[in-house]
Amino acid sequence: MFSAQGPSLRELAMQALSSVERGYDLLAPKFDHTPFRTPDGILDATADALGSLGPFGEGLDVCCGTGAGMRVLRPLCQGRITGVDFSAGMLAQARKAHPDAEWVRADVRDLPFDEAFDLAVSFGALGHFLPAERPALFSGVYRALRPGGLFAFPIGAPQPITSGWYWALLGFDLAMRARNAVWRPPFVMYYRTCPLHAVRDDLTAAGFTVTTVPLTLLGRREDGSPRYRLVLARRPGTSD
């Protein structure tokens, strides 16, 4: 799963026994050489689906990490593109890789923006928030968008119970819950706490109008349903 340039088992253990922020600070220099970095295929499928909805003005990557989401924002946005994350280590790597973008260190549960962006995206971040924390996250994104602005992120279909991935993800979540029950600070990273129906409900409660589109470039499951959907949460209204 890891290239020769990726973290060692010892480094991963140190990350897992840290807080989320400290863990990602430690992992940042080698993050792009791990499977945790969003694959280019998902980024490209997202950009393709958003292409017909743009162009956009200013763009924001929420929980930007090392800046992989710039691959989506740069061709779609005509104005500035910005990444926000609370890991100083991840932002340092992002600045090196994308010096033309703006980078802001902040807790995304309290975003420091007010009607500043036309498009917001996020990749692989929802598992870092407990369900009770999602309303603050989504409300902050809502405030950060101008009227008519769009918040978009891919979400995978649930794995069937017959799939090995179902049991692998279940086992990971159970291991993380056990770790957090006996070790402080907690490391919040779960794969099964953000099903589409719950995410849709939280986005709607924050004021968004929510639709989804299949990411057809990523294929379909055996039953014909898409492997991934793109959630499109729009802030009602029209920009001046």
Structure description:
GO terms for molecular function: methyltransferase activity. InterPro entries: Methyltransf_25, SAM-dependent_MTases_sf. Keywords: Methyltransferase, Transferase. One of its GO terms (biological process) is methylation. Residues 60-149 form the Methyltransferase domain. With 240 residues, the protein is an alpha/beta fold. The chain has a domain at 39-157 and 195-234: Vaccinia Virus protein VP39 (Rossmann fold, 3-Layer(aba) Sandwich), CATH 3.40.50. It is built from eight helices and seven strands. The chain has helices spanning 9-16, 20-27, 40-51, 70-76, 88-97, 134-144, 164-182, 196-205; strands spanning 59-62, 81-85, 102-105, 117-121, 145-156, 209-214, 228-234. The chain has a seven-stranded mixed beta sheet, sandwiched between helices. Strand 4, helix 6 and strand 5 (145-156) form a beta-alpha-beta unit. Helix 1 packs antiparallel against helix 2 (20-27), helix 3 runs parallel beside helix 4 (70-76) and helix 6 (134-144) crosses helix 8 (196-205). The longest helix is centred in the C-terminal third of the chain and has 19 residues, at 164-182. The protein is globular and about 50 Å long. The termini are far apart. The mean pLDDT is 90.
